[in-house]
Design a protein that fits this description.
Strand content of chain B: 35-45%
Oligomer: heterodimer
Order of helices and strands of chain A: HHHHHHHHHHEEEEEEE
Number of strands of chain B: 31
Strand order of the largest sheet of chain A: 6-5-4-1-7
Largest sheet of chain A: 5 strands, antiparallel
Shape of chain A: flat
Largest sheet of chain B: 8 strands, mixed
Helix content of chain B: 10-25%
Number of helices of chain A: 10
Radius of gyration of chain B: 55 Å
Distance between the termini of chain A: 60 Å
Strand content of chain A: 5-15%
Number of helices of chain B: 7
Structural class of chain B: alpha+beta
Chain lengths: 256, 570
């Protein structure tokens, strides 16, 4: 009798666990990712797009998801959305060569050939790690250098080995460099919010009124910077310095 | 000039909009002037939507007028409006904002006529566009021709960008200029041609072409003959759009090895030699000629190629105009190396293409070719073992197609990568190390002080030592030796005081201790209490009376209380 009771309890617990596991699996981001990839490989790009978007809606931010979403939008002929998601992926996986190749190809398919991060690229030429590392990686290197620096200082309290001076100096230099670069990158992204035109054609206007004078026109995939946000309107700027207003549904943000 | 005033006549400023003429042809431009009188600090005029015109700002001019002693400023904003189509149009009110008020002008009506209707005489200049086939197949070569007819002098002629959405285009080189007679009138003609290749089926409209130029102002118009010389006016000439219907290639009759070429082609091939030794190469030259896009043409199929090794060379291509048609030629060369001796046969070299003239798939071929392969001569020195002769020219890798690279599928790198610099882990990693350093620093300083400063070490250890001795005294209190008990208590208090005021040795009289304490302990009552306790303990060491354990414990408590008081001030 006792054995039967124990068996029943164990069985009920297993069933409960299975149900929980099943429920988790339904919304498990990794499972969704695998399924979305299968749909993409099968050519069902719209369904794949929906699943990739669902992963993001679960709060998962991942470079591979953004990259795959960029590919999916490219296959759907939405070059602007494609570039937008490639730029978002670059925040997480900046050294991914496939990403750079696909981004370059997508940019060549645009009509306006506008690239918004040209000035940051100049900074990146001088400080090569600026575009080769994500902000997260830079901050973690900074924190590790911080730990090394203080640990070396602690060790210096007990011993005067010359090697410790090198450790202190190098960790201080590297830490400040990485921390400074991460700060510059975060501030730059905050001030110059990159974005992409995601509609086939948009008339950039002088004011937040549909009847305002049209200043110039942009096309799908043109990369811009958002200078100001006001309700449903965005003040955008292109590399030549020209500015104007567009509606928020016409432009997609390319920064986290 | 037509002038239409603003609404509010009693306002500080006056805003008027005017045009130089309100009846023009589609080739003419209208100059719109918005005048603001009374202030130079108003906003720039906001034009209404003008979808039927190309609008360009021509700048501003400002001046100050003095009329009857009063000064008035005036700013003119000038715009050129180039009509896009004929019809009757209204330029809606222009708005100028000044001191939080909007000033609007009255609407202006403009009539735009077609160029031929405007003056009823033959035109001096115009442009035409045409294609040689308005219903081509996908991939078929279409010749687009733009002609600029003129019989007056023009300058600064600039052609607007020609957009051919849905087509691949190729330039046909420099423009041609010649004379031509049209409707009995002799014109100078400049012709520009483009090759278009439709890339998808369906209805397509080639938009109008626009050409802007400057022509001299008519001297007979009554303008000042002296000051009218050298003046020009801008003309914008527009052609009609071209409707095209691109047809898909038929599936019926499409061969498996269809080359993708659309046009009319011929093929000729020849072998460089009729006889060759085994191991030596012979060049096969294939020439494909015809009307169509050959840039992507693959090498024609060569049947019976199994008994040869084949090395393709870089093909060459050329193009020429003949009777208004574009004829292309592509030459393929391949080195063939026979693998066996004897009489070798290449049945034919062929190419399948779609002919839009006959609407069927056709085959161009040449052959057969016969090659007599002699056995190779025996070489005494070196036997050549290897893949055979190589092409001397460096092969360039040609891109055949382009596509994006595949998606990422590696789950090892999958995970939530969201990162905030102000989350728990980064904050801990940032603040914890300096705190730890501070702790270690203080600990070391304390330790150094304890090892370097004996008086400090004794002071720090005094209470701990006193507690230890009191514990020993408590144990002695339960034994049968009261003298030892009191001696231990006395030693405890004396040692504590000695450590606190850094006295060497423990054997001092109560009076000596009181004197030594006097420099440090300012509170007289506490000093007396200490002295009193020391004397009592000294006396009790030598008193013959036995005390019970309760009295001993009470004494211990008194000593502890006294030490606690001293700990606060020493």
């Amino acid at each position: 009798m006792k054995k039967q009771l124990v068996f029943m309890i164990l069985l009920l617990c297993s069933l409960a666990l299975c149900q929980t596991a099943g429920a988790e699996k339904a919304s498990d981001p990794a499972s969704l990712f695998v399924k979305a990839n299968e749909l993409y490989q099968a050519g069902d790009y719209e369904a794949a797009r929906d699943l990739y978007t669902e992963i993001l809606s679960l709060g998962v931010q991942n470079g591979q998801v953004y990259y795959n979403l960029g590919n999916t939008y490219f296959r759907l002929g939405m070059t602007g959305r494609s570039i937008q998601h490639y730029l978002l992926a670059r925040e997480f996986i900046p050294r991914e060569e496939d990403l750079e190749a696909n981004l370059g190809y997508a940019r060549e398919e645009t009509e306006d050939r506008l690239v918004s991060d040209s000035s940051a690229r100049i900074f990146g030429e001088l400080f090569f790690w600026y575009h080769r590392m994500s902000v997260k990686e830079m901050i973690y290197v900074f924190l590790i250098c911080n730990l090394l620096f203080w640990s070396a200082l602690c060790a210096r309290l007990f011993t005067r080995r010359p090697a410790l001076i090198w450790v202190v100096s190098l960790s201080l230099f590297l830490g400040l460099t990485m921390g400074g670069t991460a700060a510059v990158r975060m501030i730059y992204t905050h001030l110059h919010k990159p974005a992409v035109i995601v509609v086939p054609q948009v008339s950039v206007q002088s004011g937040m009124d549909p009847k305002s004078t049209v200043l110039f026109e942009l096309h799908d995939g043109a990369e811009v910077v958002i200078d100001r946000v006001h309700d449903d309107w965005r003040l955008i700027r292109i590399p030549s310095g020209k500015k104007g207003w567009v509606r928020k549904d016409q432009v997609g943000s390319a920064s986290i | 000039m037509l002038c239409l005033a603003a609404d509010s006549s009693a306002a500080e400023i006056t805003v008027t909009a005017s045009v130089d003429r309100n009846q023009v042809t589609i080739e003419d431009q209208v100059m719109l002037t918005v005048s603001v009188v009374g202030s130079r600090s108003s906003s720039a005029p906001e034009l209404p939507d003008l979808p039927d015109f190309d609008v360009q700002s021509k700048g501003t001019s400002s001046r100050v007028q003095i009329i009857n002693g009063s000064m008035t400023s005036r700013v003119d904003y000038i715009f050129s409006l180039m009509p896009r189509r004929p019809g009757l149009f209204t330029i809606g009110p222009v708005t100028v904002r000044y001191k939080r008020k909007n000033y609007r002008t009255e609407p202006i009506t403009i009539r735009v006529a077609r160029a031929a209707q405007a003056d009823g005489v033959s035109r001096d200049l115009f442009i035409t566009t045409e294609v040689d086939d308005p219903s081509p197949y996908v991939g078929q070569q279409v010749v687009y021709s733009l002609k600029f007819f003129r019989r007056v002098h023009v300058s600064n002629a600039a052609l607007g960008e020609l957009k051919f959405e849905g087509f691949q285009t190729e330039d046909l080189g420099e423009e041609d200029t010649y004379a031509s007679v049209k409707n009995g009138i002799r014109y100078q003609v400049t012709e520009i041609r483009r090759l278009l290749y439709p890339i998808r089926p369906g209805e397509v409209t080639l938009p109008e072409a626009a050409l802007k130029c400057q022509i001299p102002v008519d001297r007979n118009s009554g303008a000042n003959p002296f000051f009218g010389m050298g003046r020009t006016k801008t003309k914008v000439l527009r052609s009609d759009p071209i409707q095209m219907n691109v047809r898909p290639l038929p599936m019926e009759g499409k061969p498996e090895n269809f080359s993708g070429l659309v046009g009319a082609f011929s093929l000729s091939a020849q072998l460089g030699k009729a006889e060759v030794e085994q191991g030596e190469s012979v060049t096969l030259t294939i020439r494909v000629t015809g009307e169509g896009d050959l840039s992507g043409a693959p090498r024609p199929d060569i049947s019976g190629i199994d008994q040869f090794k084949i090395y393709d060379d870089q093909p060459t291509m050329s193009r020429k105009l003949k009777d208004g048609r574009v004829i292309s030629e592509k030459i393929f060369k391949a080195a063939l190396v026979p693998l066996k001796d004897g009489r070798q046969m290449l049945p034919d070299v062929s190419l399948w293409f779609f002919n839009p003239q006959t609407n069927v798939y056709e085959k161009a071929s040449s052959g057969p070719f016969t090659l007599n392969v002699l056995p190779s001569a025996i070489k005494e020195d070196v036997q050549v073992v290897g893949p055979g002769p190589r092409s001397t020219s460096k092969k360039r890798v040609e891109a055949i197609g382009r596509d994006i690279l595949p998606i990422a599928t590696d789950l090892r790198d999958f995970g939530d990568e969201v990162f905030s610099p102000v989350s728990t882990v980064p904050l801990l990693m940032f603040f914890l190390p300096p705190f730890l350093f501070a702790g270690v620093f203080l600990f070391k300083r304390e330790r150094d002080k304890l090892t370097g400063d004996m008086s400090y070490a004794r002071r720090k250890a005094a209470l701990k030592q006193a507690k230890k001795r009191i514990k020993e005294a408590r144990a002695l209190g339960r034994s049968a030796e009261p003298k030892l008990f009191y001696a231990q208590l006395s030693k405890t208090l004396q040692a504590y005081l000695g450590a606190k005021i850094n006295l060497a040795g423990e054997a001092r009289t109560p009076s000596e201790l009181k004197e030594a304490l006097g420099d440090t302990l300012r509170e007289q009552s506490l000093l007396d209490e200490v002295h009193s306790m020391l004397r009592e303990l000294e006396f009790m060491q030598f008193a013959p009376d036995r005390q019970d354990s309760d009295q001993g414990e009470a004494l211990i408590k008194q000593v502890e209380t006294l030490i606690t008081k001293l700990e606060r001030v020493l």
